[in-house]
């Protein structure tokens, strides 16, 4: 499981770094209320080891192969990562990702996270 956590961290860090490069270049105009969030993101990825030869998409595929029971959560994390530049411009974009017509029913029915929650609260 340790290896998978490092892959998740690396995938997330690469997506965050890409979004922050877009912010720094001026390609993405950050919502002023999220400036401090950008600084927090910079701190979060500062010490994360990333394999630059492997893209976030390749890491997503690797994770889905090794953790097939977490496909829904991995897809959600990857989609949010890919959309981070847009989310930093307009935070409501994150809500749109989370509340697509089939996302919530699928999450509550199929996600490993919710299965653990249901067992814990039964």
Percentage of helical residues?
Answer: over 70%
Q: Strand count, sense and closure of the main sheet?
A: none
In one word, what is the shape? globular
Q: Low-confidence parts lasting 5 or more residues at pLDDT below 50?
A: none
Task: Tally the beta strands.
Answer: 0
Report on the architecture of this protein.
This protein is mainly alpha-helical and 122 residues long. Helix content is 73%, strand content 0%. The chain is built from seven helices and no strands. Helix 1 packs parallel to helix 4, helix 3 runs antiparallel to helix 4 (71-89) and helix 6 crosses helix 7. The longest helix has 23 residues, at 2-24. The model has no long low-confidence stretch (mean pLDDT 85).
Give a short overview.
The protein is mainly alpha-helical and 122 residues long. The protein has seven helices and no strands. Helix content is 73%, strand content 0%.
């Amino acid at each position: 499981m340790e290896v998978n956590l490092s892959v998740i961290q690396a995938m997330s860090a690469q997506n965050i770094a890409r979004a922050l490069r877009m912010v720094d270049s001026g390609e993405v105009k950050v919502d002023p209320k999220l400036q401090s969030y950008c600084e927090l993101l910079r701190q979060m990825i500062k010490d994360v080891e990333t394999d630059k030869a492997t893209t976030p998409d390749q890491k997503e595929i690797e994770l889905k192969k090794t953790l097939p029971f977490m496909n829904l959560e991995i897809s959600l994390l990857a989609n949010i990562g890919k959309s981070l530049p847009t989310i930093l411009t307009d935070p409501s974009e994150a809500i749109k990702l989370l509340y697509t017509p089939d996302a919530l029913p699928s999450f509550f029915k199929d996600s490993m996270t919710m299965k653990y929650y249901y067992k814990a609260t039964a």
